[in-house]
Amino acid sequence: LNQSLEKAWQKLKGESAINKENVKEPLRDIRRALLEADVSLPVVRRFVKRVEEKAIGTDVTVGLKPDQQLVKVVSDELIGLMGTEASPLAERGFGTTVVLMAGLQGVGKTTMCGKLASYLQSQGKSVTMVACDVYRPAAVDQLQTLGERVGCPVFSLPDSKDPSDIAKQGVKAARDAKADYVIVDTAGRLAIDEDMMQELRDVRKAVKPDETLLVVDAMTGQEAARVVQSFDESVELTGAILTKLDGDSRGGAALSVYEVSGKPIKFVGVGEKLTDLEQFYPDRMAGRILGMGDVLTLVERTEAAVEEKDAERLMKRMMSNEFDFNDFLEQSKMMAGLGSMSSVMKMLPGMSGITNDQMRETEKNLKRFEAMIASMTEAERTSPDVLVRSPSRRARIARGSGHTENEVSAMVATFGGMRKRMRSLVNMMGGNASAGMTP
Ligand code: GDP
Ligand code: MG
């Protein structure tokens, strides 16, 4: 997944903005990458369409280049696709919270009951489990063994063949025992099956669960979307749990769940041990799917490129009339780090009306300024006024930087005017202005 996405970003490197044309190929790569990750086709289609709309119409985040911008859009969309926020397990303020587990056979329901019980107990909650898999005697034993290991009671009725009756009595027993949680394990089938759905509806009616969680095997891939959809339609789900994420799974199932059902994934299973349970965090999952933690960190860092500390220090110097050529250099480097000058300029207060011609002129001026500053001595940089008084210094700088003496004089004058304007701007804004400049 990783590699095809890497290609997608690469294709935007060096472009100055995202447009309908240059985003086409990266979008194709993203589409392919998601399909390879086993995301179902309709989900991929909708996803790519949304990414396209956002990437083209987007307000450029300060400092992001087009490729980083696309990474950000894809990452944000991925996170949104999985529900954005972590979704904790329901908890009744008063009485016993009922959690019903549903899902196909072999996906890890019974194992997950044990993991959840263990997790809840580690949070100081008391738990009872109820064994409603009446088809396989071994399933009841399995839950009982887990109960012993976790140290929580397991309710079962060996002679009953009625899951809803067992569930009802089990939940009552948990309430009598004043358990904080009761977890009801049910029988799965190999495939979607009306009997199973009816059974689940009956159990739901009998115990009115606070949570009905669909356990989905992450290895299910494309099929996951259909499974989630039919369970959600037949028995109203409140959420899902994704198991076997430790395997070869490419994570695509995670993308389908919320998109198809609007129900959040609450936990993930990452192994066969009781402790192999994690809360589900959409942003972490997105990072894992994108396989590009580094790029995301880079994006975050760029977003914070004008570090507050630096900006603040520069601000102070502007206000104190100490702003010199070194500060000027630092400031223009900062702004260069934020991407193309023009996109940054447009975001500065009072600059949105600036024309493209003026902007190009400003950019050219900045480059000239930088070259001239490079030819200054340290004393000249820190005391700009000496240049006002010394034609010979200006002549030396002109020679050194490949400019005329007039150009250097104009620069010195512009810089002086800029300092003045800065100070008055700062005073006008009560010292709260953000770092900006009008050379
Ligand atoms: P059920 O039929 O849905 O109750 O599934 P089980 O809980 O009996 O689990 C079926 C198999 O999957 C067992 O061998 C489990 O050990 C295994 N299993 C369950 N969860 C995970 C997981 O997160 N990772 C891995 N690798 N195996 C798991
Ligand atoms: Mg089971």
From TrEMBL:
GO terms for molecular function: 7S RNA binding; GTP binding; GTPase activity. It comes from the Eukaryota. It catalyses: GTP + H2O = GDP + phosphate + H(+). Keywords: Cytoplasm, GTP-binding, Hydrolase, Nucleotide-binding, Ribonucleoprotein, RNA-binding, Signal recognition particle. It is found in: Cytoplasm. Its EC number is 3.6.5.4. One of its GO terms (biological process) is SRP-dependent cotranslational protein targeting to membrane. Its main location: cytoplasm. This is signal-recognition-particle GTPase. It comes from Pycnococcus provasolii. The chain holds residues 123 to 561 of 595 of the full protein.
